Amino acid sequence: MNTIKRLACTVLGAVVAVLLIVGFGGVAAAAPAPVPVVAAEPAPPVATPVAACMAPGDSIELRSAIAAVLGTTIGAIVGLPIFLFGAIPGAILGGVVGFMVGSTWYALDAGQAPQGC
């Protein structure tokens, strides 16, 4: 009896899912309303690029430390289901990966910053 209930719930869920997909797919595929044509539209303004310099005090050490702390925290939380035996290696690996991400992040931003800022 229990398997029949499970089968019925699964079939019912699949039917509801298909109906929702078909219903919303039909709405999404409907043709949009025509846009009224205006006689003379002004040209859009041209954007001028602005030099984005690195913030003062921004350094590779700061970004790497922030990313390492975040990586250590995430690694420890992910390793918690295996108790301390998983949390400690998770924190170490998360910190190392976070440090690498932070230093790469800085190198990319420093390479894209215009010279002479």
The proportion of residues forming helix, as a percent range, comes to 55-70%
Q: What proportion of the residues form beta strands (DSSP E)?
A: under 5%
| Biggest beta sheet attributes | none
Number of helices: 3
Q: What series of H and E elements makes up the topology?
A: HHH
Q: In terms of per-residue confidence, which ranges show pLDDT below 50 for 5 or more consecutive residues? A: none
Count every beta strand, where a strand is a DSSP E run of 2 or more residues: 0
Oligomer: single chain
Name the shape in a single word.
Answer: flat
Q: Can you walk through the features of this model?
A:
The chain has 117 residues and is mostly helical. 66% of the residues lie in helices and 0% in strands. The chain contains three helices and no strands. It has helices spanning 2-28, 60-79, 83-112. The model has no long low-confidence stretch (mean pLDDT 76).
Write the layout of secondary structure elements.
Blueprint: H1 2-28, H2 60-79, H3 83-112
Keywords:
single chain; 117 residues; mainly alpha; 3 helices; 0% strand
Summarize the structure.
With 117 residues, the protein is mainly α.
